[in-house]
């Protein structure tokens, strides 16, 4: 059977992949639904698990084997240093090879779970507290109260992290449950493969026997008609059986284009929660928690006070970028043998800092200022010259000059086609008044903080 599996894998992954990654595997046995393969090195095992684990599992299931998980192990007595001198030597130096953390065994998952994506490693703040609470609730594995749980939010805000955390937690709280996590793309891939191999019965059976189904990045199936159709049936079958479903997407259900109406409305039936963009406090909290990991890895590096605050302030895009910046900073400091200072940050992260500068728009400023002074946006932009409108208008002009890179004529155009001299006058006026008028100075400070958050 190993021979047959090898043949199928060769077809599925192609010759190059096969000879690099599959050929070195040595099939051991299948016990209790776990197929074990011997691999020469941990690195190879991890790589194969990440990249081909799904495929191997799929092929074995296709051969009628009762397998729900694949496992790769380095046989005892076969030290990586012997079988792979390069990897062994680097590991001995402890420098560039990340020492693989003890991988926790994933529950039956169509996709491998990241062992770092746990609740313990998830920093909770205002922007994500609701999503976190909902995820926690589902992870208790109690009776289904809302179905589905729909998590949405921009890239890098922790959707995948939360879903993996649910899967890990359920493994402890409800080991009896069959939990499946996969991306919508993988769902489609499996579906298409089942169609091609005439294995639709197996496919349906597999997904309908799940207790908790998590589908990540569901926006991926938008516009893919037959996959949507199948997803809809799977979804309904599971909801009817009162099985928990957890879905994520990069936007709210109603805003996913090319998604069938009936699916949209189904997705809205449960609890829809969004992950808001991070705020400064959350970013700082995340950095503080991640910096511990880095410091454990590079104990010799000193970290100047204020660096984390600076990063939290300046990198306001997504958490993944924030994490990447931190990793790079430590690696860079270690390479050049310098302490981590603000100056080093500028040297090492110039590109990241440039790209993640948040662009504040004129429209945003106008909106916030009108809200702050409780006047209508149209009045602020319009021609009325009474003080109630003129002062906020000038404040907005001033902030546009300060916080955006727009030129005076451009700003003028956004203020109902005013001349650039009018804008300049407004900006000067506020500059002068600010020095004497404490209330005005305070208003501007508040607005600046709101806009820069
Ligand atoms: P998404 O799926 O929403 O695009 P991810 O879940 O992949 O985002 O998160 C991106 C990275 O940021 C991951 O490494 C994740 O661990 C980290 N991350 C996001 N939010 C948090 C958080 N609140 N606490 C700790 N790490 C986080
Ligand atoms: Mg994700």
UniProtKB/TrEMBL annotation:
Q: Which GO terms describe its molecular function?
A: ATP binding; DNA replication origin binding; lipid binding
Q: Note the SUPFAM superfamilies from the entry.
A: P-loop containing nucleoside triphosphate hydrolases, TrpR-like
> Under the cellular component aspect of Gene Ontology, which terms does the record hold?
cytoplasm; plasma membrane
Q: Chromosomal replication initiator DnaA C-terminal domain location, by residue?
A: 361-430
* Residues that coordinate or bind ATP: 156, 158-160
Write out the entry's keywords from A to Z: ATP-binding, Cytoplasm, DNA replication, DNA-binding, Lipid-binding, Nucleotide-binding
Cell compartments where the protein resides: Cytoplasm
The chain positions of domain AAA+ ATPase read 145-275
- Region (Domain I, interacts with DnaA modulators) residue ranges read 1-90
Region of interest (Domain IV, binds dsDNA), residue spans: 334-453
> PROSITE patterns this protein is in?
DNAA (PS01008)
Concerning InterPro entries, the annotation shows: AAA+_ATPase, Chromosome_initiator_DnaA, Chromosome_initiator_DnaA-like, Chromosome_initiator_DnaA_CS, DnaA_C, DnaA_dom, DnaA_N_dom, DnaA_N_sf
What the entry lists under SMART domains is as follows: AAA, Bac_DnaA_C
Keyword Thylakoid present in the record's keywords: the answer is no
Q: What does this protein do?
A: Plays an essential role in the initiation and regulation of chromosomal replication. ATP-DnaA binds to the origin of replication (oriC) to initiate formation of the DNA replication initiation complex once per cell cycle. Binds the DnaA box (a 9 base pair repeat at the origin) and separates the double-stranded (ds)DNA. Forms a right-handed helical filament on oriC DNA; dsDNA binds to the exterior of the filament while single-stranded (ss)DNA is stabiized in the filament's interior.
Q: What is known of its domains?
A: Domain I is involved in oligomerization and binding regulators, domain II is flexibile and of varying length in different bacteria, domain III forms the AAA+ region, while domain IV binds dsDNA.
Spell out the family assignment given in the record's similarity comment.
Belongs to the DnaA family.
Subunit-level organization: Oligomerizes as a right-handed, spiral filament on DNA at oriC.
* NCBIfam families the UniProt entry points to: DnaA (TIGR00362)
Q: What is this protein called?
A: Chromosomal replication initiator protein DnaA
Natural source organism: Lentibacter algarum
């Amino acid at each position: 059977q190993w021979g047959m599996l090898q043949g199928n894998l060769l077809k599925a992954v192609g010759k190059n992949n096969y000879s690099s990654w599959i050929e070195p595997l040595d099939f051991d046995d299948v016990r209790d639904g776990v197929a074990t393969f011997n691999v020469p090195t941990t690195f190879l095992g991890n790589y194969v698990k990440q990249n081909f684990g799904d495929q191997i599992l799929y092929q074995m299931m296709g051969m009628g084997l009762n397998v729900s998980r694949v496992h790769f192990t380095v046989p005892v007595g076969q030290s990586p240093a012997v079988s792979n001198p390069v990897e062994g030597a680097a590991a001995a130096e402890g420098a560039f090879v990340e020492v693989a953390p003890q991988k926790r065994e994933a529950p039956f998952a169509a996709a491998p779970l990241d062992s770092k994506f746990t609740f313990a490693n998830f920093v909770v703040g205002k922007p994500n507290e609701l999503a976190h609470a909902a995820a926690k609730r589902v992870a208790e594995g109690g009776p289904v109260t809302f179905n589905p749980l729909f998590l949405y939010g921009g890239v890098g805000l922790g959707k995948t992290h939360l879903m993996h955390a649910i899967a890990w937690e359920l493994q402890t709280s409800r080991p009896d449950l069959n939990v499946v996590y996969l991306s919508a793309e993988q769902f489609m891939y499996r579906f298409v493969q089942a169609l091609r191999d005439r294995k639709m019965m197996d496919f349906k059976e597999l997904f309908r026997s799940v207790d908790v189904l998590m589908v990540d990045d569901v926006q991926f199936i938008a516009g893919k008609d037959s996959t949507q159709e199948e997803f809809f049936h799977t979804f309904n079958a599971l909801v009817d059986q009162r099985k928990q479903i957890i879905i994520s997407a990069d936007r709210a259900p109603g805003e996913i284009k090319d998604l069938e109406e009936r699916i949209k409305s189904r997705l809205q039936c449960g609890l829809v929660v969004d992950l808001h963009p991070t705020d400064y406090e959350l970013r700082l909290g995340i950095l503080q928690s991640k910096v511990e990991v880095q410091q454990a890895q590079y104990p010799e590096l000193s970290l100047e006070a204020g660096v984390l605050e600076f990063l939290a302030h300046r990198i306001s895009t997504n958490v993944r970028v924030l994490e990447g910046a931190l990793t790079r900073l430590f690696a860079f400091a270690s390479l050049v043998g310098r302490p981590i200072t603000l100056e080093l940050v500028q040297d090492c992260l110039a590109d990241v800092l440039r790209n993640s500068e948040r662009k504040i728009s004129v429209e945003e400023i106008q909106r916030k200022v009108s809200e702050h002074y409780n006047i209508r946006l149209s009045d602020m932009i319009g021609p009325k010259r009474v003080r109630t409108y003129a002062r906020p208008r000038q404040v907005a002009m001033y902030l546009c000059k300060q916080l955006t890179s727009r030129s005076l004529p451009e700003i003028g155009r956004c203020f109902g086609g005013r001349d650039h001299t009018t804008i300049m006058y407004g900006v000067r006026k506020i500059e002068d008044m600010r020095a004497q008028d404490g209330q005005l100075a305070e208003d501007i400070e508040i607005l600046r903080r709101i806009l820069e958050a």
